[in-house]
Write a structure and sequence with these properties.
By secondary structure, the protein is an alpha/beta fold. The chain is built from six helices and five strands; from the N terminus they run βααβααβααββ. It has one domain: Rossmann fold.
């Protein structure tokens, strides 16, 4: 799936219930790729997004792809890293690139908490789109405004 500009797609359809809107954190992506505990939950979310009609909307932030890519490059040859990244991009997700509204919101999230910059982008998108953040990262536990699916 190639990244889409925000005006090319309705990223979180309003026809879906709030509990079917998800943002995947990098930890959720690795959870599925590495078949870690919780991978079945991530897979069920993606299956719901694959359904006809879709039963879920899944957003994949640009920052999650960047984190995934650099982690892969540290442990795999560049070609293998690209293959894995390409496979992830074909999941039933909408890749969300930065925009001024999200950037401002992520900065506000970062300023109010002890999240890393990458995690502020993830939490910012989830709160901005009123979506559940799917993650394994205990750093998010302190961020009260965030609705989450906490993986084991």
């Amino acid at each position: 799936m190639t990244p889409l500009a925000r005006d090319e797609v309705e990223v979180v359809p309003t026809s879906l219930p709030l509990d079917s809107r998800f943002v995947l954190d990098t930890s959720a992506v690795f959870c599925l790729l590495n078949d870690e505990p919780g991978a079945d939950r991530v897979e069920s979310i993606l299956q719901a997004a694959r359904a006809e009609p879709p039963q879920a909307s899944v957003l994949l932030p640009f920052m999650a792809l960047m984190e995934l890519h650099y982690h892969l490059l540290r442990v795999h040859p560049a070609e293998t890293a690209r293959e894995i990244l390409n496979r992830v991009q074909f999941w039933p997700v909408v890749i969300v690139e930065s925009d001024p509204v999200w950037r401002t919101h992520a900065a506000e999230v970062k300023a109010t908490g002890n999240l890393s910059v990458a995690d502020a982008w993830m939490a910012g998108l989830a709160t901005l789109r009123d979506a559940l953040l799917v993650h394994k990262d205990p750093e998010f536990d302190a961020f009260q405004a965030l609705r989450v699916v906490r993986l084991p």
